[in-house]
Write a structure and sequence with these properties.
Elements lengths: L2 E5 L2 E3 L5 E8 L7 E7 L6 E7 L5 E2 L7 E6 L4 E6 L8 E9 L2 E4 L3 E5 L2
Parallel strand pairs: 2-11
Antiparallel strand pairs: 1-3, 3-8, 4-5, 4-9, 5-6, 7-8, 9-10, 9-11
Length: 115
């Protein structure tokens, strides 16, 4: 079973920055498509950013220009760098990856943006 391990969540003030990381544990495998989703209380889970193994990144309009997704394919590491954070960015962030055509999810890490 594929396991995605997330880290980097926490509390940050508006305008601050935070970096999230996601790496698979257990069996060694390659991530076909990887990305980040988030879910705020009372709202649906939404796409934040995604990137195919050799493709260009795609971003939600709400985070474009502020967030950057990157991948280290050799390490199967997926990173989300979040800059100029806003209170509306507050949510649980989930790592997502497609492996052999199947979606896998991390447990989520909480990001709170508050002054």
């Amino acid at each position: 079973q594929v396991q995605l391990v997330e880290s980097g969540g926490g509390l940050v003030q508006p305008g601050g920055s935070l970096g999230l990381s996601c790496v698979p544990s257990g069996s060694i495998f390659s991530l076909e498509v990887a990305g980040w989703y988030r879910q705020a209380p009372g709202k649906e889970r939404e796409l934040v950013a995604t990137k195919a193994r050799y493709g260009s990144p795609k971003y939600a309009d709400s985070v474009k220009g502020r967030f950057t997704i990157s991948r280290d394919n050799a390490k199967n590491l997926v990173t989300l760098q979040m800059n100029n954070l806003k209170p509306e960015d507050t949510a649980v962030y989930y790592c997502n990856a497609v492996v052999y055509g199947v979606d896998y999810w991390g447990k989520g890490t909480l990001v709170t943006v508050s002054s």
